[in-house]
Write a structure and sequence with these properties.
The protein has 20 helices and twelve strands. The chain is α/β, with parallel strands linked by helices. It has a six-stranded mixed beta sheet with strand order 6-9-10-3-11-12, with helices on both faces. Strand 9, helix 17 and strand 10 form a beta-alpha-beta unit.
């Protein structure tokens, strides 16, 4: 726990002054608050003695103490709010910054829904606890201690009641907290499940509506939400016992103090003690302060225990180190697009029983066009992800431009190996802003040239705003084919040595697909082009075609060579051209 606190404390930074001033102001506020009942008791003594000068002094003292307490409380609240919100801001920034450096392997470790929960709910819990720590956790114990001390200054007999009520209340709160905390800890995993359900539903809204599965999704969400609600209700029911217990101790203490105090005033008890009505009123005030402090301490304990799990989850993200890092003296230039796989094997985690890729040996010359086909799950995408070092190879070596990819500066490598991923992603903003993800310094002329090559210029100009047309979040207001072509144009703006198209022309028609490939050969002949495709027509003109099966290379060759010798390639080719073959046979 100490390590967790130390790690989180690093996010306080520029808000240290507010974090220090808040407890100091709380000490002043509590000091004035516990002083006022004592002044009231002394004021009452002056009334009994008809001491006008004393009454004036103590009256002014009460006003001054109240004003000081008010000002200290106001400033303490202001500084506390600034310190806690600033701490939460820094904490979210630190987490987000670390997430940006995560490799794909790191991201695989945390689900996106879990990261969202940690950045929102968990940070809010820690923020609330931090607010309590620097304000309430200082105020309540001090109020408890000072009130007990001051109550003995008023009456040496009556405060002994607290030594009975405090242990009863403390023991009861301990039992309540012990029962409630395991439920609160269980809640966080269900928060992750709830966020995951929401994300899936929003991302797959078109599929949900297409298959008329709204009722199913609603029931699924209600189930997850219901489980979360049940746990919270169960925990809150347990915590609800805190109120009656508190009231029992409070009212019991007040009754006993009132009874004994009245007996002392009437001379029926404590003959050696001089207690006035004003002193009794002060004792009742101290009783309220003591017992309310205990209640606040119980709530602090609950909140700290609840946020302890949140803090642990946050520190998990902050402590996570990227599995990929630059070497001490990285290579900062990619000479050409040569690619060599030398006995490469790869698995996604050390615990995995089977390699995703097994003993890959390839030699791809710069400027060549390589096609990759294979069934679903044959690890085509995994193969190309290694080239831009989105993952590190488990065994063997991978070279780009005759240099091991591990020896490159990762930013340099990825700027020279452009990848158009299988799942295309556009961001909210104009088309220009999306294209400049490829090259933030790109001119309008460069963007137009890239879009023409990607067969995107014509449909962009059909929009009234042209390249200033706004793209909705996720590219929701453009078609799948338009989205793919914009992503290809974005990659081309990198002017890469290697261009990887991971099934990124699947949503375009055959004519556009052919125009893209012709454009690549004509305008970027020196760029190595790797095309993953389901359609043989997309790769049949490639210099080399790789057939993948179960994470291994089944065959390598040209279209004619594979069509003559490879069973997998033949099967795919004939299944895709069956209609044309039947038509030709019928004509004959």
């Amino acid at each position: 726990m100490a390590k967790t606190i130390t790690k989180l404390a690093g996010s306080i930074r520029e808000y240290k002054k507010e974090a220090i001033l808040t407890p100091i102001l709380m000490v002043i506020e509590v000091g004035m608050e516990v002083l006022i009942p004592l002044i009231i008791a002394l004021f009452g003594t002056c009334i009994q003695k008809a001491d006008m000068q004393g009454m004036l002094i103590y009256g002014i003292s009460m006003i001054v103490a109240a004003l000081i307490s008010l000002m200290a409380g106001m400033l303490g609240g202001k500084f506390c709010a600034k310190a806690s919100t600033g701490f939460a801001k820094n904490l979210r920034n630190d987490m987000f910054e670390n997430i940006q450096h995560f490799s794909f392997a790191n991201i695989d470790k945390f689900s996106s829904s879990s990261l969202v929960t940690r950045l929102t709910t968990d940070v809010t819990n820690v923020q609330m606890s931090y607010m309590m720590l620097i304000r309430t956790a200082i105020r309540s114990p001090l109020m408890l201690i000072f009130s007990i001390i001051m109550s003995f200054a008023v009456s040496p007999t009556l405060p002994t009641i607290f030594f009975v009520t405090i242990p009863i209340l403390g023991f009861g709160m301990f039992i309540i907290t012990k029962k409630a905390m395991p439920i609160f800890r269980r809640v966080f995993k269900k928060y992750d499940n709830l966020n995951n359900s929401i994300q899936e539903n929003i991302k797959g809204m078109r599929v949900v509506k297409a298959y008329v599965r709204e009722d199913y999704e609603s029931k699924k969400f209600q189930k997850v939400s219901g489980e979360l609600s049940k746990d919270f209700i169960k925990a809150e029911k347990i915590l609800a016992f805190n109120g009656p217990l508190m009231q029992f101790c409070l009212q019991g203490a007040l009754v006993v103090i009132g009874f004994l105090g009245s007996a002392i005033i009437l001379g029926m008890f404590g003959e050696n003690e001089n207690l006035s009505i004003f002193s009794l009123q002060s004792m009742l005030t101290y009783s309220l302060q003591i017992l309310m402090s205990l209640q606040m301490i119980s709530m602090i304990f609950v909140m700290l225990t609840l946020s302890g799990e949140s803090a642990r989850r946050i520190v998990e993200v902050l402590d996570e180190k990227t599995t990929l890092s630059n070497p001490e003296n990285p290579v900062t230039e990619v000479k050409n697009g040569d690619i060599k796989f030398d006995g490469v094997s790869f698995k996604y985690s050390e615990k995995a029983e089977k390699n995703a890729l097994d003993n890959i040996n390839l030699d791809i010359k710069s400027g060549s066009t390589v096609g990759i086909i294979g069934g679903t799950g044959s690890s085509k995408t995994t193969l190309v992800n290694l080239i831009s070092r989105l993952y590190d190879v488990t065994e063997g070596s991978l070279y780009v431009g005759d240099v091991n990819v591990k020896d490159y500066d990762m930013e340099v490598l990825r700027n020279n190996v452009a990848v158009v991923l299988q799942k295309n992603q556009l961001f909210s903003g104009t088309i220009k802003e999306n294209l400049r993800w490829g090259n933030k310094e790109a001119t309008d002329e460069q963007m137009i040239e890239a879009c023409k090559l990607a067969q995107a210029h014509d449909f962009i100009m059909s929009f009234p705003e042209g390249y200033d047309h706004m793209i909705d979040q996720g590219g929701a207001n453009v078609s799948g084919g338009q989205k793919q072509r914009l992503c290809i144009a974005r990659a081309l703006l990198k002017n890469p040595k290697v261009l990887i198209l991971d099934d990124s022309t699947s949503a375009v028609d055959m004519k556009t697909d052919a125009l893209l490939r012709k454009g690549f050969e004509k305008f970027i002949p020196s760029t190595t082009k790797i095309i993953i495709a389901q359609r043989i027509a997309s790769v049949m003109d490639a210099d080399m075609i790789i057939v993948m099966e179960n994470g291994s290379i089944n065959a390598v060759g040209t279209h004619s060579e594979l069509l003559a010798s490879n069973a997998i390639y033949q099967e795919v080719y004939h299944s895709q051209n069956k209609a044309n073959e039947e038509k030709v046979g019928g004509d004959e």
